[in-house]
Amino acid sequence: MKSPFVLAACATALLALLATGIPAATSGPKSGTVETIQVHGKSLEGNLEGDPPDRDVFVYLPPSYATEKNRRYPVVYFLHGYGAKAEAYWKLMEVPATADKLMSSGALHEMILVHPDAYTIYNGSMYSNSPTTGDWETYLTRDLVEYIDAHYRTIANRDARGLAGHSMGGYGTLRLAMKYPEVYSSIYAMSSCCLMNNPAAPRPPAPANRPPADKEGKAGPPAGVFAKVFSAEAAAWSPDPKNPPNFFDLPTENGTPRPEIVAKWIANSPLAMVDQYVSNLKEYRALKMDVGLQDGLADSNKQMDASLTELNVPHTFETYEGNHMNRVKERYEMQVLPFFSENLKTQSPGHHAK
Q: Does the predicted TM-score (pTM) go above 0.85?
């Protein structure tokens, strides 16, 4: 089981970024356009924890979008980590400025970038389907994709659609990749959490990249982040509509594991799921994972790489010097966006598909 300290480290590192507004695309003759929209999720309606079904979505339209009216573009969807909103990752990775630099220079094919917000009452949806949190898989693979394809000039097929995410978003990326190969053709999972969720196992020590001290000098995340990790996971993986007021079952009671609930959590672990979805994973044009060697999640990501290798699923796996958060922007710029530029179907200015 991953440590909640890792997820909380992600949250702590990003919360400070929320103090300022969303940066617009950089100025200049070849800047893209940023739109902040809301996309309604029919699949999220009626969720028992009362999260809004209208979700913020941040959209980057590439430099030529405004002038080449007949041109269509591939789309990359990015899933944020636990304890943070899509806004924080948008700023952390400096998405508009980074995309402008790479696309205007010709280093990348032009793409539409879409970052949906999945922040919930418990600080994260885990990108799973549950009556308690709502059907997040359906929202991402149907409601959101259909909206983006209907409202923007996309190349509306899987060959031009990619999915990436970091931490909880890496988990969501692998989860959706296993189940929905008809939606995406290329996948990039960064520092994925939650690859084996066994709440009955001993908790690993906190990672070296602990959250920074707060203003009182105490180490650790903002109050409540640790406490909400288990609630977020329980809401996603062991929902119980007959158990108000929280509508979920915890995997332990008075410190004793509840085997029937523990089994549900393990069943939602990519390391436990992967054998069931080998044929789906083999349909991808490209699948890549990465993790920092000093990340508390490194071992489980290495195990996922080994499982994919043993199952003969074509993929690429990279490790690098870094912890859970300190190289996210660099990896996004130098690895994630070039990966999709290389692997997604594109349309040239002359409107000929790659």
A: yes
Kindly write down the DSSP assignment for every residue of 10-70, as one continuous string: HHHHHHGGGGSPPPPPPPSTT--EEEEEEEE-GGGTT-TT---SEEEEEEEE-TTTTT-TT
- By the 8 A CB rule, do 77 and 162 touch? yes
Indicate whether 350 belongs to any domain. Answer: no
Look up tokens 């020590």; give the residue. Answer: 205
Residue 354 lies in a domain: no
Neighbours of 71 (CB within 10 A): 18
> How would you classify the pairing of strands 54-61 and 112-116?
antiparallel
Q: Can you tell me the distance from the alpha carbon of 348 to that of 290, in angstroms, rounded to the nearest whole number?
A: 30
For residue range 91-138, list pLDDT tens digits in order.
999 999 999 999 999 999 999 999 999 999 999 999 999 999 999 999
Domain count, the chain: 1
CATH of residue 245's domain is 3.40.50.1820
In this structure, what are the phi and psi dihedrals at residue 47, rounded to the nearest 5 degrees?
-60, 140
* Separation between Cα atoms, residue 195 and residue 202, nearest integer Å: 15
DSSP, res 351? -
Written as one letter, the residue type at 34 is V
Beta sheet of 75-79, edge-to-edge order: 33-40, 54-61, 112-116, 75-79, 161-166, 186-190, 286-292, 316-320
Burial of 318 (0-12, 13-18, 19+ CB in 10 A): exposed
- Asked if the structure places residue 353 within a domain, the reply is no
Domain span at residue 313?
A: 4-343
